[in-house]
Design brief:
- The chain is of the alpha/beta class.
- Helix content is 39%, strand content 22%.
- It folds into two domains: 117 residues, Response regulator (Rossmann fold, 3-Layer(aba) Sandwich); 90 residues, Arc Repressor Mutant, subunit A (Orthogonal Bundle).
- The protein is elongated.
- The chain binds calcium ion.
- The site of calcium ion (CA) has 5 residues, from loops.
- Calcium ion binds next to loops.
Length: 218
């Protein structure tokens, strides 16, 4: 595998390079988060090992820029401590996996093999359907350039639709995905919330399919 290693600590970078070469991989090493996007555009990497703590641009930001540029090369993030926030931030930035330092090279190789099998299929962190855009991490929604503020329940319902564009969803399906078990199963609550969403996002956002439910208009 052709692997890009982004790591600023010389000892760790040298260890990774040596280990990857011994394992039969072809690693390139850089210490600069800023260089990641153009390096990946210039070379066809199979995976990227990306340290979080870098001088200048952090690994999180570098990963976000890759994904924003439409580059889906698998990213394995290296976090310095076992902090939940770091792992969450990494995954939300579009990383595919993470390892907490210190780690064994055996585990790094195993994770790289798993990522290599996955390939660079598109895995956007934001959901986009037509003019609509939804970011599950920051819980924000836009129609075109305009951000639309949704309540938590409206957001949950909207996310359910955005994950299934073009599908007709019954009131029961929508209840199951956007409401918890404790909620008394009264299907008109879905109609009420679809009405709220239409008021906020535009009446053309959903089609009503008589006798079946609703469909997000693509
Ligand atoms: Ca570092």
């Amino acid at each position: 595998m052709r692997v890009l290693v982004v790591e600023d600590e010389p000892k760790m970078a040298a260890l990774l390079r040596r280990g990857l070469v011994e394992e039969g991989h072809a690693p390139d090493v850089t210490a600069q988060g800023e260089e990641v996007v153009w390096l990946v555009e210039a070379h066809d990497y199979d995976a990227i090992v990306l340290d979080v703590m870098l001088p200048g641009m952090t690994g999180f930001e570098a990963c976000r820029r890759l994904r924003a540029a439409g580059i889906w090369t698998p990213v394995l993030m290296l976090t310095a401590r076992d902090a939940v926030e770091d792992r969450v931030a990494g995954l939300d930035a579009g990383a595919d996996d993470y390892l907490t330092k210190p780690f064994s090279l055996e585990e790094l190789f195993a994770r790289l093999r798993a990522l290599g099998r996955r390939g660079d299929v598109e895995r956007p962190t934001e959901l986009v359907v037509g003019e609509l855009r939804l970011d599950p991490a920051s819980r924000r929604v836009w129609r075109g350039e305009k951000e639309v503020r949704l309540s938590p329940k409206e957001f949950a319902l909207m996310e359910t639709f955005m994950r299934r564009p073009g599908q007709v969803l019954s009131r029961l399906q929508l209840l199951e995905h956007a409401w918890d078990f404790a909620y008394e199963n009264r299907s008109n609550v879905v109609d009420v919330y679809v009405r709220y969403l239409r008021q906020k996002l535009g009446s053309d956002v959903f089609e009503t399919v008589r006798g079946a439910g609703y469909r997000l208009a693509a």
